[in-house]
Design a protein that fits this description.
Mean pLDDT: 95
Radius of gyration: 23 Å
Distance between the termini: 33 Å
Number of strands: 22
Structural class: alpha+beta
Shape: globular
Strand content: 15-25%
Strand order of the largest sheet: 18-15-17-16-20-21-19-22
Number of helices: 14
Largest sheet: 8 strands, antiparallel
Low-confidence stretches: 1-12
């Protein structure tokens, strides 16, 4: 009998897939099968590098990988998979940590569709497989940039827009709040253009929709003028009350557009930055007036150096400690401003070096709630919401099931406490979530989520990894 295992053994990874055997439920290169549609790209067995994600502890080998060269390829293969009840997921840069984008069916590798089609003064038209790093570098040649950039920007456009896209820029919303139009292939295998004025229901469902309602293939996103320099400050604190007080002061003043927090060696620090033109530099004395933290750094950086700083740091970690191979069960939760200080004051002192690791971070991002516009983006109901992250990394590269299990249990415990205080999960991280948890996550919007699933993915083949349906 022809099986996937002996086929791969005989022919090797990377062999083209010719069809699907609906009886044995295996992809095949020869023999009796339902032939796959003619494609511009290719369908292969090669799952090297795409069977795990940034977490490095969930392994799920796709039965086949689509390397599309056109949106038509994605339409055709989703229709084919729907006919044969094959699950489908899309992979951007694999930066989630709990198998959200993994699948034992068909994996669409979006890296093969990564063209930046155009950049104008207020928008960019870009394939979903391109990265925000690609777009930022291309835009800056015209002195333009996306208004919201995540800390690490080597992420795909489509992946970020499926999750939310959190920035240290506090008062302009998330990446999903700056999308003019999308091209989406639904679970029916149909490419649809959608925006706030065209196919609005699909537009609302897909942005921050965790991949449940369609595959984002192209996006028109906002661009804004980018000033050439950034003045960056790092303030160190000896205690949490003083740290919280200064953090609130900076947010209330609204004089510095980028403010976030990071614990370095267990010590709280505020990172703040403001863009400027060299002809009109900011006043350190004015911006830092009456703050209690000690100034650990005040530096001027060119724009690209500043926005690529985390990518640079991660590249260094890849070389020094094989960062990509570290098990990383990340914890990510939204906290309401009213209980954030209480929660952080409970959790941070309890963290050990093992909870963070040499390749990990503890972070806090304040976001003004009124600037969030996308209905699928679930956050607490408060004037300010705070994304709290424990970006855990194992001590050494390679599999470590015991460590992953230990940290998952920690994450579940920490989330239970956060939920008691009004916290909401940010779905990029590592957590055990069942159907009841997802229903609670969406709350009063859960019936709408179910209706959208029936409308756009009626056979429930898309993105099974999160376990929402």
């Amino acid at each position: 009998m022809l099986t996937r295992r002996n086929l791969l053994t005989g022919l090797g990874l990377g062999v083209l897939v010719a069809g699907f055997d609906p009886v044995g439920r295996v992809w095949a290169a020869e023999g009796p099968f339902d032939r796959v549609p003619q494609l511009d790209g290719e369908l292969v067995f090669d799952h090297s590098g795409v069977s795990t994600d940034n977490g490095q502890y969930v392994i799920r080998e796709p039965l086949a990988v689509l390397r599309p060269k056109s949106v038509r390829d994605i339409e055709k293969m989703i229709r084919f998979c729907r006919k044969h009840r094959i699950k489908v997921a899309t992979r951007g840069r694999g930066h989630s940590t709990h198998g959200q984008g993994l699948v034992a069916g068909l994996l669409i590798d979006s890296r093969w569709l990564a063209t930046i089609h155009s950049i104008d003064r207020d928008r960019a038209d870009v394939d979903a497989g391109a990265t925000w790093l690609d777009l930022t570098r291309a835009g800056y040649r015209h002195r333009l940039a996306p208004p919201v950039l995540t800390g690490y920007i080597g992420l795909s456009i489509g992946g970020v827009l499926s999750m939310g896209g959190v920035s240290s820029t506090n008062r302009v919303g998330l990446a999903v709040d700056h999308v003019k139009e999308l091209e989406v292939v639904t679970g029916e295998g149909r490419a649809v253009r959608c925006s706030r004025t065209r196919n609005r229901a699909l537009f609302d469902a897909v942005l921050a929709g965790v991949g449940q309602f369609g595959v984002i293939t192209r996006a028109i996103v906002d661009m804004v003028p980018a000033l050439p320099m950034v003045r960056s400050y790092v303030l160190r604190y000896a205690d949490l009350p003083t740290f919280f007080k200064d953090l609130r002061t900076l947010l209330t003043r609204n004089e510095i557009e980028d403010v976030f927090a990071q614990w370095l060696g267990g010590v709280p620090h505020i990172f703040a930055a403001t863009a400027f033109d060299p002809s009109s530099p900011p006043s350190d004395t004015h911006l830092l007036r009456e703050l209690s933290g000690s100034v650990a750094q005040a530096a001027s950086l060119d724009f690209l150096t500043y926005v690529e700083r985390v990518d640079t740091q991660v590249d260094d970690l890849r070389k020094s400690i094989s960062w990509d191979e570290l098990v990383k069960p990340w914890f990510d939760v939204w906290l309401p401003g009213s209980t954030m200080e209480r929660y952080v004051s409970e959790v941070v002192p309890s963290l050990t070096a093992r909870d963070v690791g040499a390749g990990g971070w503890v972070l806090l991002f304040p976001i003004q709630r009124s600037k969030l516009t996308r209905p699928m983006m679930r956050v607490p109901d408060d004037d300010w919401v705070f994304l709290f992250d424990i970006l855990t990394a194992a001590e050494k590269p390679g599999p470590d099931p015991a460590f992953a299990k230990e940290m998952l249990a920690r994450n579940n415990r920490l989330f239970d406490r956060a939920r008691q205080l009004g916290g909401v999960r940010y779905p990029i991280g590592s957590m055990d979530f069942g159907a009841r948890d997802w229903a609670a996550h969406y709350g009063e919007r859960w019936p709408e989520v179910q209706r959208a699933k029936r409308a756009y993915d009626p056979d429930r083949i898309l993105t099974p990894g999160p376990g929402i349906f």
